[in-house]
Amino acid sequence: MEIAANLESVRQRVARACERGGRDPSGVTLLTVSKGHRAEVVRAAADLGLALFGENRVQEGKAKIGLCPSRLRWHLIGHLQSNKCRDAVHFFEMIQSVDSLSLAQEINKWADKSAKTVRVLIEVNIAGESSKFGYAPEKVLSELSEINALPKIEVHGLMTVAPFAQDPEKVRPVFRRLRELKTECEKILGAPLPQLSMGMSGDFEVAVEEGATIIRLGSAILGPRSAPKPASDE
Questions:
Q1: Extended beta strands in 129-219, E state
Q2: Average predicted confidence (pLDDT) for the chain
Q3: Is residue 185 a part of any domain in this protein?
Q4: How far apart are CA 148 and CA 186, in angstroms?
């Protein structure tokens, strides 16, 4: 089966990247990006032992999660609008795309209403691309303590989406800077931040070499998207 072969290839590539970076492969978590894939594809991937999946849009995840095995874990990895926070808190165990204090406050509000504590990652736009969401690095440092003080939110680390590059080496400085920023954040908080979510299908090996603990892979595992582009939930 194509997914099985893809998964074996990815695991071998992760292992080699860990060897180059002097890391234990068990320290890298594979998040399978199921955006644009039907529930039956997710179920096939789950049958191979994959358990952590990521969706970019709340509405697509909301429609899909109930059709998949209940043991699966789901992260929201795409931009979150404040009017979708209630559903995001309900359906996802982690929100990787917190990109403003106001969004963190809205998540905290709905987590409180749901009697839940929500794990989050702070999304950082390291390269400063106007087409991407995310905090500027310096603003993360200035607002981190306020986000961390929200009672129903647990900050577990940082996330970034690197610029597209034909040569993954060109985005190595982006991953390195996120790792350095995590260290700066840990100094502010006086506590470790365990997660660095960085690296996608085209650049995950470099991200692993630079310290990624979560890599977000879609096409590298599931192949081309099988579902039509979902309607916008803007």
A1: 153-159, 195-197, 214-217
A2: 95
A3: yes
A4: 11
Any domain includes 230? no
Asked if residue 232 has pLDDT above 60, the reply is no
Model confidence at 107: pLDDT above 50: yes
Instruction: Return the SS3 of 118.
Output: strand
Domain count within the chain:
1
Q: Please state, in angstroms and rounded to a whole number, the distance separating the CA atoms of residues 78 and 35.
A: 10
pTM for the full predicted model: 0.94
C-alpha–C-alpha distance, residues 96 and 165, integer Å: 22
115 φ, ψ (degrees, to nearest 5): 55, 45
Cα gap 166→121, rounded to integer Å:
27
Domain-located, residue 199: yes
Q: Which stretches does DSSP call E strand in 124-226?
A: 153-159, 195-197, 214-217
Please answer whether residues 32 and 62 qualify as being in contact, where contact means their C-beta atoms are separated by less than 8 angstroms: no
Q: Tell me the CATH number at 167.
A: 3.20.20.10
What is the average per-residue pLDDT within 1-6?
Answer: 90
Place of tokens 């470790």: 192
Tokens standing for 18?
């860990």
Q: Domain limits at 98?
A: 2-222
Contact 137, 172 (CB under 8 A): no
Q: Does residue 228 form part of some domain?
A: no
Rounded to an integer, the average pLDDT of 61-78 is 97
